[in-house]
Amino acid sequence: MTRHAHPSSPLRRRLFKWFAVAIVTSLIFGTGLGWLLWFLNHHEHHQHPIERFEAARVAEQWQNPAARSAILKDIGEHLNFGVELRAPNGALLETYGDLCPHLFATVPVNALDGTLLGNLALCQPRGFPGSEGKEHGPPRPGARMLIAVLAALLVMWAASGRVARLLAAPLQDLAQVADDLGHGKLSSRAALSSRHHGVDELDSLAQSINDMAERIERQLHDQKELLAAVSHELRTPLGHAKLLIEMARDQPDGQKPLDELENELVELERMVGQLLASARLDFAALKQQNVDAVPLAVRVLERAGIDAALLQVDTDRTEVFADPALLAQALANLLDNARRHGGSVVALRLHQVDNLLYFDTLDNGPGFADGQSDSAFEPFQRGPASHGGLGLGLTLVRRIALAHHGAVQAGNRPEGGACVGIAVPLAT
Predict the structure, then answer these.
(1) Residues 6 or more apart whose Cβ sits within 8 Å of residue 38
(2) Residue-wise pLDDT tens digits, 50-88
(3) The domain containing residue 47 runs over which residues?
(4) Extended beta strands in 251-298, E state
(5) Cα–Cα nearest to 96, from 78, 73, 74
(6) Are residues 42 and 173 part of one domain?
(7) Over pLDDT 70: what percentage of the chain?
(8) DSSP assignment letter at 388
(9) pTM for this one?
């Protein structure tokens, strides 16, 4: 059988791509917003009171070049700025300090009547690391922001690749388990907890897949055992039926072989009924409705050849919400179990406990040995006094009870014998 791999690389690449797009988009938006805030902040610097004050001082001494130069020197020394004084047409009139292209602020120099005399330009403060003795000062704030953005981009890019791998790897593990199950390797299990700590959702998904795999493996194992047991058990009545037919042909009065043949056919019908009931439970094909338990129990007793007078009703509420066919099959299995292991049926008792109606079969047999009642409903359990059967009758009873959200019980009676029963919800 050809196996198809499910590489996680395409998924990892797609996750990485989307992470990268989200990161780049976020950084572009953040950078744009940062530039806008920087621009607004830079624009506000043009209106700083200190800068306007210095511009007013220059305006007062505009016609006195020596005093004006002294003011520029005072600004440069005390504020640690490079200073440029330009005419309204942009021509450079005077400078002080090391000039740099990184403008900090530009302030208009106006006369008292509002006439524009020139512009006072303040350069990036001197004395910053890397500015001494160099033609150009430190990088602009925008350049520093760009460097920070690029560094953040590289870090987030690497982180996105790691996150994409952490998300894709466990999904690949789950895909591999699903592929193994599809190809019949039912022992395959997902084990994520040891490798992907903290991803509770993935661990929960892995646990669900493991539970599903265990149920499938268990069901297939039980079905194989059931088919093996049924195939063996069916051969016995079929072979006996063939022998009885030959005997009936050879005897003038073939009534006895025919009676025995009828019994064998009844046994076959019982086995087929159990198989059909088990199949309905496997496919959850229940048809629940309100059912009066008394007439149903009477019909089951009569079909089993047991006197209906053995039915004991110890409750006023006898209507249950159940699938009548499956409930009848469960009661038939209980009665058959009582006859096979307990010798004979003493009573079929109906009684209520809380919102459940119990159907208990009482027999006069040896009862359960110590600890045997706990495993009475397990598959392929046969008592020492068993006469044929698959050992699945009580197992089917338990499955029917669980499908109805009911219960089962098994134990010994104080007066001797066993009490085995099923409980289903009362009708509301």
Answers:
(1) 141, 142, 145
(2) 777 888 888 888 888 888 888 888 888 877 778 888 888
(3) 1-180
(4) 289-292
(5) 73
(6) yes
(7) 66
(8) S
(9) 0.49
